Amino acid sequence: MEKQTLNKFFIIIAVILLLLVAIFSSSSYSSNIDKLSYAIAIGLDVGKNSSMQLSLQFSSTNSPSSGSGSSQSSEAIVYSVECSDINDGINLINNYLSKKINLAHTRVIVFSEEFASTGVSDVIYTLINSVQIRPTASIVVSKCEAKEFLQSASSKLEKLSARYYETIQNSSEYTGYTQDISISQFFYDIQNTRKNASAILGAVNKDASHASANSEQESGKYVAGQAPIDSEDPGIENTGLAVFVEDKLVGELNNIETICHLLASNNLKYCNITIPNPLNVSDTIDLRLSTDSPVKIEVNLVNGNPFIKLDFNISCQLISMSENVNYFSEENLKKIQDAVNVYMKQNMTDYLYKTAKEFKSDIVGFGRTAIHQFLTWDDWINYNWLEKYKNSFFDININSELKSGQLLIET
Prior knowledge:
The chain is an alpha/beta fold. It has three domains: 2-26; 35-253, no CATH class; 255-411, Nutrient germinant receptor protein C, domain 3 (GMP Synthetase, Chain A, domain 3, 2-Layer Sandwich). Helix 4 (121-128) crosses helix 8. The chain starts with a helix and ends with a helix. The protein has helices spanning 2-34, 86-96, 113-117, 121-128, 146-151, 161-170, 172-175, 183-190, 207-210, 215-218, 255-264, 330-359, 367-370, 377-383, 385-388, 406-409, and strands at residues 36-38, 41-45, 52-59, 76-83, 100-102, 108-112, 138-142, 198-205, 235-245, 248-253, 271-276, 284-291, 296-302, 305-318, 393-402. It contains 16 helices and 15 strands.
């Protein structure tokens, strides 16, 4: 009996100790949270007096002057500092603020075009080596200053600043106008021998940027900041892609070119396009595109130069219809399919030759197919695919299918 009583006593003591540990651990954790300020975005510009200008964005209720860890605000609070490197900048802002900066909830890293053109590998290596930065944080190249981009990042439709970045990145899944590219993917691509890197193209959409509209934009082709959207307050817009060679920015793609890129790299879920109506020359038609199967890619070397064949199978759904037009006849369905084929082939051709001849950048990653042409790793390295890609020529086949049964059921 005494042994049983003693065992019960030890069990009670153990339970009490566990409860005390849990209580004090929770209190300590809460105390630590109150001492931290979470940056939800990082911006990098070329400095005027130093090598860079670092900007950190906080939501108002997560700012160092507030006493809450919540990020329930539509306001963007940005602190900026001129510094020699990113760690130096964080230390300088840390010394100014009342809370310690933490990067565990950083959603995006924004480079200005000017900064990205000088090379970003040092910053990427520093951030990827940080235990706080999530590998899913997105990489954005801004057509305006990164500081201005962060200051404009708010929305009346979305009060959570951190969640706001997630929302605009998710739009790539249903527009095809951009692609969410993480720091881990970007880091892998800038040191890859089979593929070049790309990043989200961003800008602040304001009236001044609409004044630069030209014939290309009038046909529905835009880059970030140029869409003719009328809003009370300028907001950020992610449209297009920034193209890199190694770690340096070399060019940009518009929304239609980005759709072609997603098709060629098997990353398109679905998107909408507008083409001239083959049944009515004074009108246009809107279609939703998706793919039933991955693109078939074949790479051969002809006289030492890459010859790349691509075969696309595209599914189409009409999402706009004109009055007094019979869309159910086989003849008219064939005309629409042919029109889609011509439109997509022309844009795909323009996109591929632009990346090869103008940018000299294989952001699709054709090198992953081309590498099978080589017997050894040394042969592949000596060929130098990323340098030879500029000599590529292409054979493109587009096969679209528009089923009459989908016209009324799915539109």
